[in-house]
Amino acid sequence: MPSGSRKSGTLRKVFKRTPGGKTVVHYEKRKPAQHKCGNCGKKLIGTPRLRPYKMQNLAKTKKRAERPYGGYLCSSCSRKKIIQEVRP
To answer: In this structure, are 48 and 20 located in the same domain?
Structure first.
């Protein structure tokens, strides 16, 4: 039986195999929500759903899309924004 703090829905069960062949249950925090576009609210493609302590170890290029406004705006909104800036 898990202890009281592990019974809530905030933690998820992960079944791990030990070298001895037994399966044990580990509890870990759930993944955060997908990042959203700051303009239209659409889910951003190319940004990983990781907890902050795992995002620290990733390279900057793997945390966001490699384009202007990458990681903040979706591709269609960033395209519109760039066109807006160029027009007089």
So the answer is: no
